[in-house]
Amino acid sequence: MKKFNLIKGKFYYSENFESLGNTLPYFRMGGSHCWFQLDQIKGPAVFCYAEIAGLFEFLNENCLNCEYAGTNYEIIDEVTDDVIFDWNDVRRKLDVAKCKLFLNKREAGIVCRRLQLLHLTDFTHTVEGVGILRKFLEKTIIPEWGLEKIKVSVSTPKITIGVDVEFEELEDFNNYSPISATISGGVEEKIGKDGAGDQIELRPDPASKPSELIKNIKKLLKQINDYPISWRGDRYPLGAHIHFGLPEEIKSHINYRIISEFLDELIGKYVLDLSGRARGRYKVL
Q1: Contacts of 268 (CB under 8 A, 6+ apart)
Q2: Which is nearest to 9 in space by CA: 38, 29, 25?
Q3: What are 103-135's pLDDT values in tens digits?
Q4: What string of DSSP letters covers 200-227?
Q5: What is the rounded CA–CA span in Å between residue 7 and residue 253?
Q6: Span 207-250, pLDDT tens digits
Q7: What is the pTM of this model?
């Protein structure tokens, strides 16, 4: 089985930011097309086409007496798309900064080693740009700053399991005679109609253990004891989607993708055929 590494921290994904790939575990925070207060940022952090309130004041007060002042970085790559140089923050921050990144002798962001912060132009807007940035992080910033991968520590009780279970409602208890659900609950209630409106869906409270989740399902089943139901699914498509709630410190779009790939490899590929004649994306890893 291949190795799966989760990323710890707070990341905001837009455009191609996710493609920074194996460089991201070295950063606590990052993102593109986002906004932050400087005091919310804990480095190492990398941002592209972002706004960082409070950074001008910090640079204005600290740049001249900083031991790293005047440490500029130069990337010599031929750039075909000028959108990479787009800057979303106030221009005066670039003007006052004493440590910058230059791409083909053009300003492409601020590199503040004191804060362990990269505040850059719109690299992740293009595949070309994100490739240039990834190489810069790998070859220069990570080794020069002595960055190490952020270790992930997760306690099991913080992970919750949820599920929604679907049933067909029958006309009576004696025959398999599916009907459109008559139950009154909607999509936001613990017992209600499925989004399609033809099935009964149970949405129990999430739990930290599978056994607790089963108990929560049984509680809801008792509440619909007067309804004739079936899990046969010959008329209406039925399913039981499992949900995982992640601890705050590893919540990120890329972690959801990593965990999905892990579950596909561990479970999905072995049970895929149990989906019968499920349509479209309901029968894919």
Answers
A1: 285
A2: 29
A3: 999 999 999 999 999 999 999 999 999 999 999
A4: EEE-PPPBSSHHHHHHHHHHHHHHTTTS
A5: 10
A6: 989 999 999 999 999 999 999 999 998 898 888 888 888 887 77
A7: 0.68
Residue closest to 228 by CA, chosen among 163, 185, 164, 182: 182
User: Residue 163 and residue 166: Cα distance in Å, rounded?
Assistant: 10
The count of residues in the chain is 285
CA 131, 82, 92, 105 torsion-angle sign:
positive
Distance CA 250, CA 10 (A): 8
Tokens of residue 218, six digits: 């049984």
E strands in 27-132: 29-32, 35-37, 45-48, 51-53, 73-75, 100-103, 106-112, 117-120
Residue 108 has what DSSP assignment? E
Token reading at 257: 């993708």
Share of the chain above pLDDT 90, in %: 65
What does the pLDDT read at residue 238?
86
* pLDDT above 60: residue 194: yes
